[in-house]
Structures are given as C-alpha cells and as structure tokens.
C-alpha cells in the first residue's frame, strides 16, 4: 500500500515524518483494552510508530494516569502472547500512554480536553478513534469542531455499525462530513484487515489461473459463513437492539461478498478498490416483500451445550429482554444483477452459539460437462479466515489400486506454515497503521455504507411486516433447520 513521505531507519522500518496523537474515546471499553492497545503495543515493539507519537485514552471513569497504565497492562498481558510481551518494551510503550477523564456527551468537557492537549496541535497530526456507541458519534464530532480540535491535520476513525438504518447512517455521515472531509474519515471493518481477506484479492487478481473461471459459467454458488461459539457476552444491551443483520450482515458479510464478486480495479488504490466494491452493492438484487420468507432465515439460540458446558438461551442473557425477538442467526440467499454473476446464488450465514467457530468463503464450482467417473465431485475452493488462515482447493484424484476410483484431495496453503518465522499481524495492527499513514484502501467509504443499508433496510422491514419471528436453534448446533432447507431445496448444502 502507498505510504506518505517517510524516513527509513537502519532496520528498514518506515517512520512518519510528522508526530501524531491518537485519542481513543471509550478508552476503558473492551474494544480499546482488548484490541486497540495490544495492536498499538505490537506496532510500538516493531518500530512502526513515530518516536514522538502519544496515545491518549478518554473515558468517563475517574482514573489517574498510573491507574490507567496498570489497567492497560493487565488487559494487554491477557491478550498478547507470552513470548511477545516484554516488560521493558511495555515500559517504553507506557510512556506514550496517558488518560483523560471526561463525559464525551457533554460539550463543555471538550474545552477542558483542548486545554489538556495543549497548543501544539498545528505541529502534530491528531487521530480521533471513536470506540464508543454509535449514538455518540455525532455529538463527539460536533464538539470537536466547537472546541477547535478538528482541522486539516486530523483524522477520525469510526467503528461499525454506522447507524442502525439508512436514515440514521445518512445522519451520522452528514454530521461527520460537516466537520471532516471524506479523506479524513476512516470507517473501520476489522475483517478487511485479516491477512486471508487480502490474500483473496491476491488470489483473484495476481493469478491468471482463476480469472477465466471466476464467473457464472463455471461457479455453481458461493457460501460466506461467519459463525461464533460465543453468545452476546457483555454486549446484551447493544445486541438486543441490533441483531445479527445489523451487527454482522450489513458490514462484515457484505464486505466479504464485495471482495469475492468485484471486478479488478484499475489500480490498487483506495478509490479504485472502493469504486468496484460499490458497484457490487448497487447490483445486489433487492429482497423485499414476500421474498424475505423464501430467501432469508432468522434464528435465535435456545439453551444448549458448547464445549460440554451448558449455556443459557439468548433471552436469559444479561441485559436482554426476556421476550426478545432479536435474531442471533441470519441466513440469506443473495443474487447479483450483473454480467459476471447473473444466476449465481451467494449464500450468507452468521450466527452466535454455533457448533464451532469458523469464518470461511466457499467457491463451489460447477461439475465437469461430462461425468466420466462415477465418484467424481465438483471442485471447491475454501478460503478460511478463522480460526486458522488458509486456502484450500479440492481436486479429484485417483485412489491407489485397481480401477478408477476417485477421491477428493486438497491442495492446502496454510499461511502459518508458509511463513513460520513471521508473527501473524492482528487485523487492527494493519488497519491502525493504515490510519496513521493515511491509506484508506481497506476502509469503507460513505457511499458504500449507505448502499449496504439501502439493501438491508427492506429485509428488516419485511421481517417486521410479515411477522417473521426468529426460528429457535439449540446452542451448539448449526443453526435453524430452515437454514439448511434454504440450500437443500436447490440440491445444495452448507459446508459444515
């Protein structure tokens, strides 16, 4: 990816010329402590941060700088592999780390923040990371402008979800856009920072083998699954007003679909890549009215066993209404109305409390035109994002012995085995570094977010209007039976 003007130290590590401050709003939350700070610690350890970069956590909790550093150290120790955590490195990282207690919903507090930060902002870059609830995005942005804390040398990072509908997303984007230019806004989807997701683009656009067959004439269908064994954990209050459609499908799964289906960009730069993704979102065939009953499935987990342990039903989780009809599972049959993909169904699926944790993309090719051997099966490409990152191509080969008995064989590319000496970067490490360097290739543009909501909103409306209540499924299963039927009625099946 492109990197702005930089210096190179003797080890070959790029260092930005201009120092910057990163302010993390919601600095005592799970996202900041479990993801952002460990990622920044690794970037610091690897010499990827400017020597004068400062990290400022902002939250309501009344804590001293030392108390926050101690809290951050405890959480980072729990998240970072033991071999990667070094006391001396942490001590130098902690020197960057400061804390400021304030209520981000109160405008008057931002004057205090401005005085705390000092008057040298014109000489430094400044990044505002909003690791908060989306309902604070507008207020924080407006108050940054009022306190004169927004300018040409600032950037703002927004976590998903951007709103809960097309209307609310437009309101948030308009409020952000009134203060920051689009080039200053980084809407983050951590799935786009995963190594295998980026390898998907390399696989498609750097190998002549796949391009001729990456189309309707050769592909039977595509499956995109993101399954979790966890429940809602401590996010019950948020999740019960969101559900699987808003929390996962509108962002993560649609972004993966875009990368599978998009045309090759003219150049590998931010605008070219995002232009091609937008074309896919705009080509999605609407699912509205009675179509929601035939092409979508909602589910909600009931009590069951995960890893041998009993877990409660969703409606007994903390901060969840006992009569909640929020979906914890969603499956959809999606079609793309364009030349390349006409007639190819894309099956999307995501769920909590599933049988196993897995995120994968399955490209199911069509069978050979003439079935010469009885045991022959169609080829299949499986791109796994988690728990391990790998790419596997299933081919047919002959079993040893008499006769032509065929068996499926996998050509496996396991990234951990191919690069055994290299530590796997966490998605947030890559994305945070891109924010610092100003590279927005792996971030969502405003029109992408709104196009995704424009497609999702009619499905949510259809669920309400046609009383499509969530189908129950036991925790530890593969989801509702109706999700299996979504494929079986067409002679297909999920890859479980």
From TrEMBL:
The keyword Transmembrane does not apply. The active site is at 252 (proton acceptor). Pathway: Carbohydrate degradation; pentose phosphate pathway; D-ribulose 5-phosphate from D-glucose 6-phosphate (oxidative stage): step 1/3. It comes from the Bacteria. Transmembrane segments: none annotated. Keywords: Carbohydrate metabolism, Glucose metabolism, NADP, Oxidoreductase. Residues 24-199 form the Glucose-6-phosphate dehydrogenase NAD-binding domain. Residues 201-495 form the Glucose-6-phosphate dehydrogenase C-terminal domain. It holds the Pfam family G6PD_C. It is an enzyme of class 1 (oxidoreductase). PROSITE patterns: G6P_DEHYDROGENASE, IQ. GO terms for biological process: glucose metabolic process; pentose-phosphate shunt, oxidative branch. NADP(+) binds at residues 60, 160. InterPro entries: G6P_DH, G6P_DH_AS, G6P_DH_C, G6P_DH_NAD-bd, NAD(P)-bd_dom_sf. One of its GO terms (cellular component) is cytosol. Its EC number is 1.1.1.49. Substrate binds at residues 190, 194, 228, 247, 352, 357. It catalyses: D-glucose 6-phosphate + NADP(+) = 6-phospho-D-glucono-1,5-lactone + NADPH + H(+). GO terms for molecular function: glucose-6-phosphate dehydrogenase activity; NADP binding. PANTHER family: GLUCOSE-6-PHOSPHATE 1-DEHYDROGENASE, GLUCOSE-6-PHOSPHATE 1-DEHYDROGENASE G6PD. Belongs to the glucose-6-phosphate dehydrogenase family. Catalyzes the oxidation of glucose 6-phosphate to 6-phosphogluconolactone. This is Glucose-6-phosphate 1-dehydrogenase.
């Amino acid at each position: 990816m492109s990197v702005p003007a930089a210096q190179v130290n003797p080890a070959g590590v790029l260092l930005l010329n201009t120092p910057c401050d990163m302010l993390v709003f919601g600095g005592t939350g799970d996202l900041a402590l479990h993801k952002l700070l460990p990622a920044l610690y690794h970037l610091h350890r690897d010499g990827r941060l400017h020597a004068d970069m400062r990290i400022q956590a902002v939250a309501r909790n009344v804590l001293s700088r030392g108390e926050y550093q101690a809290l951050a150290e405890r959480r980072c120790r729990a998240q970072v592999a033991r071999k990667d955590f070094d006391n001396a490195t942490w001590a130098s990282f902690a020197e960057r780390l400061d804390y400021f207690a304030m209520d981000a919903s109160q405008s008057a507090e931002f004057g205090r923040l401005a005085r705390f930060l000092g008057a040298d902002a014109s000489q430094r870059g400044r990044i505002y990371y909003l690791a908060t609830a989306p309902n604070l995005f507008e207020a924080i942005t407006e108050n940054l402008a009022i306190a004169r804390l927004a300018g040409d040398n600032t950037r703002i990072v927004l976590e998903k979800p951007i709103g809960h509908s097309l209307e609310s997303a437009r309101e948030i984007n308009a409020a952000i856009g009134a203060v920051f230019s689009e080039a200053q806004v980084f809407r983050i989807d951590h799935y786009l920072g995963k190594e295998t997701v980026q390898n998907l683009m390399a696989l498609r656009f750097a190998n002549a083998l796949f391009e001729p067959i990456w189309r309707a004439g050769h592909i039977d269908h595509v499956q995109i699954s993101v399954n979790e064994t966890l429940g809602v954990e401590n996010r019950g209050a948020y999740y019960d007003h969101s559900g699987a459609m808003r929390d996962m499908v509108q962002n993560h799964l649609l972004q993966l679909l875009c990368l599978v289906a998009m045309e090759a960009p003219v150049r590998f730069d931010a605008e070219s890549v995002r232009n091609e993704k937008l074309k896919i979102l705009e080509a999605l065939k609407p699912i509205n009215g009675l179509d929601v009953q035939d092409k979508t499935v909602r589910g909600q987990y009931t009590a069951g066993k995960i890893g041998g342990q009993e877990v409660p039903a969703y409606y007994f989780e903390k901060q969840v209404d006992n009569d909640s009809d929020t979906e914890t599972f969603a499956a959809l049959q999606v079609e793309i109305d364009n030349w390349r993909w006409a007639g190819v169904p894309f099956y999307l699926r995501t769920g909590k409390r599933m049988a196993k944790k897995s995120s994968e993309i399955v490209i199911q090719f069509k069978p050979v035109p003439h079935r010469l051997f009885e045991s022959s099966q169609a080829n299949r490409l499986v791109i796994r994002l988690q728990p391990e990152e790998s790419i596997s191509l299933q081919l047919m080969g002959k079993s040893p012995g008499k006769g032509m008995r065929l068996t499926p064989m996998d050509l496996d590319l396991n990234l951990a085995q191919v690069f055994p000496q290299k530590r796997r970067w966490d998605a947030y490490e890559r994305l945070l570094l891109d924010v610092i360097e100003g590279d927005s290739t792996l971030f969502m543009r405003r029109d992408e977010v709104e196009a995704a909501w424009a497609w999702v909103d009619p499905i949510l409306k259809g669920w309400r209007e046609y009383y499509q209540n969530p189908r129950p499924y036991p925790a530890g299963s593969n989801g509702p039976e109706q999700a299996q039927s979504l494929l079986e009625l067409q002679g297909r099946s999920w890859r479980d």
